[in-house]
UniProtKB/TrEMBL annotation:
Residues 23-91 form the PilZ domain. It comes from the Bacteria. The lineage of its organism: Bacteria, Pseudomonadati, Pseudomonadota, Gammaproteobacteria, Pseudomonadales. This is PilZ domain-containing protein. GO terms for molecular function: cyclic-di-GMP binding.
Length: 120
């Protein structure tokens, strides 16, 4: 069982992953919390605890500026990267804006469908 310190919000939002100031990959935010994100990507050339920058913008707003967050890679899998905001300097407003956008654009998904019980 996983232990989370803050609630996760599911959503989808494209982003760019930067390493040492250079864009190295594309990805898509799949879930987020005030403390971190899970990014769906096939990018694997990154180490645990490495700092990356994430650049995104909200596609349906009048504001066209890109936003950036710094994060540490805390998990790698064949489906993507888990990153944490702890220990890096970020704008709290950007994290709050991201959480708000994901909540308001969430498409519910049935991840754990109810299993039909067989009659015996």
């Amino acid at each position: 069982m996983e232990h989370r310190l803050s609630k996760r919000v599911q959503g989808k939002l494209g982003l760019l992953v930067y390493k040492r100031g250079m864009p190295v990959a594309t990805g898509q935010i799949r879930d987020a919390s005030k403390r971190g994100l899970f990014i769906a990507t096939d990018y694997t050339d990154v180490q645990l605890n490495q700092t990356v920058e994430l650049e995104f913008r909200f596609p349906d707003t009048q504001e066209k500026r890109f936003r950036r967050l710094k994060a540490h890679v805390v998990r790698k899998s064949d489906k993507g990267l888990g990153v944490d905001f702890e220990g890096v300097e970020n704008d709290g407003f950007t994290i709050s804006s991201l959480m708000h956008w994901l909540k308001s654009h969430h498409i519910p998904a049935n991840y754990f469908p109810v299993r039909r019980q067989q009659a015996y």
